[in-house]
Task: inverse folding
């Protein structure tokens, strides 16, 4: 579970909870298959589909040095009907 950073709660992600879709930010080096396996193993659910997109890192400046924050991916995970993630299910109501 080191790859999954945290669950995302935006207007869109809360709307997707009604469609049994959950949104997580994960580290950019992991694949859809790895995240699907981790979610199924950790939460005990069946995953139907995994969609992802890569979010850009923000630019940072420390004095004269320019840098940026880490890139990460946002995964939208669709579960089979009848399954839910209990910790995030409270946000549905």
Result:
């Amino acid at each position: 579970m080191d790859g999954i950073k945290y669950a995302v709660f935006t207007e869109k992600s809360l709307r997707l909870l009604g469609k049994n879709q959950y949104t997580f930010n994960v580290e950019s080096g992991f694949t859809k298959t790895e995240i699907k396996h981790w979610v199924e193993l950790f939460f005990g659910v069946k995953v139907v589909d995994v969609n992802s997109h890569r979010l850009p890192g923000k630019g940072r400046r420390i004095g004269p040095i320019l840098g940026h924050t880490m890139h990460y991916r946002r995964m939208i995970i669709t579960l089979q009907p009848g399954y839910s993630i209990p910790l995030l299910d409270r946000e549905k109501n």
About this structure: The longest strand covers residues 47-55. The chain is about 25% helix and 40% strand. The helical segments are 11-17, 32-43, 86-89. The chain has one domain: 4-79.
